[in-house]
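Q: Structure for this?
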Amino acid sequence: MASSTKTQDAIGKGAAYGAMALLILIIGIPMFWMLSGSLKSYAEIYTFPPEWIPSNPKWSNYRDAWNAVPFGRFYINTIIITAFGMSAQLICGVLCAYALSFFNVPFRNGWMIVILAALMIPNEITILPNFLFFGNTVRDLFGLDHNWINTYQAMILPGAATAFGTFLMRQGFMGLPRDVLDAAKMDGAGHLRTLWDVVLPMAKPIVVTFAIISAVNKWNDYLWPLIVTNTNEMRPLTVGLTFLFDNEGNNEWGMIMAGTAFVVVPLILVFILAQRFIIEGLTAGATKG
Amino acid sequence: MAEAVAPAAGQSQASALVSTDYGALTWERPKAPFWQKDWFLFILFMFPNLFLLTLFTFKPAVQNLFISFQRVNLLNSKSRWIGLDNYKYIFNHPTFQQVLWNTLYFTAATLVGVLVLGLLVALLLNQKLRFRDGARAVVFAPYLLSGAAIGIVWAYIFDPRFGLLAQILGWVGISSPNWLNDPNWAMPAIIIVYVWKNLGFAATIFLAGLQAIPQDLYEAAKLDGANAWWRFRSVTLPMLSPISFFLLVTTVLGTFQAFDIQRVMTQGGPAYATTTLVYYVYDQGFGNAANYGRSAAAAMTLFAAMLTITIIQFRASRNQVHYDG
């Protein structure tokens, strides 16, 4: 009797490990396929059955991809958009969340509802008017002789504010121990001092969480930069990468996979270094918010 | 996850709105100059966020509504008021009816895929297995990556003659469909990629939910003689219901906005087979048609659908039972 349950347990354990291995294969193989493809020559790509590991790796695919489209520019553009976009969202979000947590003003919850209303508005209904804004409107408004299409400000500004971040960080700020804040008040600290020296250090986890969410979103953003850029000089990685790739006809898959690796590998490296942190950060909206 | 899992977002959203008990910190001295007054600092702190949200979110949303009632002449950017004509046009157009059907198909299939597989993966990784944290990280990783890059990798995998999938299907004696160029197979291909990318997020959230279920509930069910399946039905599923509901809503809203994978892999084709509502908004506005009025009308339709789901979520989460806090 006892031994049969033991056998059952062993079978169950074995099945569970088998399922886990299968799961890792299903998720991991496409990534492996990208890396293996990035080292294949044209002839190796177009053979069937395909080779899993190229017999003589063609490292020059990476150089060819780098030269086919200006990946250097794409990197610079993505880094600029990510750095400025994330900083702006952090500044806007932290200040607004602090104001909505600690100021005694009339209609404070009313202001919160206004911010939350922005959460209900999807990007899709703002892209067309925003595109028109950076086209004709800014030109007429400021009397410029050119518009702001294909500029960094057009890529960054529409995503510089944050309703979600305000909401998330306000939740965090409200949970801070009240007596520490009162002590700061007794010491005569003003709001700026309290924000910088007391609230931010204590609320660091939630602020960093939001910074991660923001940075990942900016790095991967696609639709808006696609619409608002029209030269390779200004395109970020996600948009520029697709110019290697042609939906029809025979593709230089080896070179294309090398280009894809340029976009994906930096994020994977960051993820390997800080995976626990990133997973908790990106799921925080669900489990803490 | 270190913290216990809080109730689904909508719920705490509601409680955040009414919690006035946490009073303000007031430092104000009676004779302080205006720049040290609370009201002034409040405005200063609120201004950047509120100004940018007004300029790039609220104002465009209203403007989009107006554009949806207009015909915009691209040559001289003059626009003419045409009432509901844009809505009448798109709703009577066979393409748009197909687009709505595509959106429903994509959303329903993705939802089932992400939630069912996500729960199965979470149940698996909730076992006491070695390397399960590593497995969780691997499963989560695609969620982090750019949809455009992922789409390109999968376009290579789906290649009907030289792709990986063609080889795997060949092992079991099936010949590969011409995935991305066949109107019947293009959407399943997009769905596979989307589920592959988003599975890990759902699994991670489910896993956090599973780990927050008190063990004594299972002990009690065991004492009552419940077998494994019955414990799952009577303890696990009900305890996971707030989190499942949250995932359902976020997944539906996510699929409504899914764009980059379609754009890279199929450009909405072949023959509109993968054009969902958001892709239609893009295509009408910035594709060859360049009809701003119709794009705006389609965007309003998308907004109406998303708003309905959000309101349903808000109402339902208000009526929900608190399980843990």
